[in-house]
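Entry 14. Structure prediction run on the chain below.
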Amino acid sequence: MEKFETQQADPAVWLRDHGDHLYEYAMFRLNDRHIAEDMVQETLLAGWKAYDKFQGHSSIKTWLTTILHNKIVDFVRKAAREKLVFRGEDLDYELPG
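Output returned:
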């Protein structure tokens, strides 16, 4: 399946058409308005940069939601690592690595 001509790399259109869905998904996962907004922004930017790799096998909405999901997973993993490092400093213990 090829990209439809109506699908274009336009984050403003994506935000208009899918922004509410993306924000609701991010809020459901993160429960923080500011972080959810940042994740949606990062998703739109990543989608715009990677649009040439979009093959049209799914809808733009599905594709953007997948990017958002991956961004959230990365964010949570990074936050967990930073929390572990912080706890390690509190305990005067340095994590190996």
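The two ends are 45 Å apart (CA to CA).
Filed with the rest of this week's runs.
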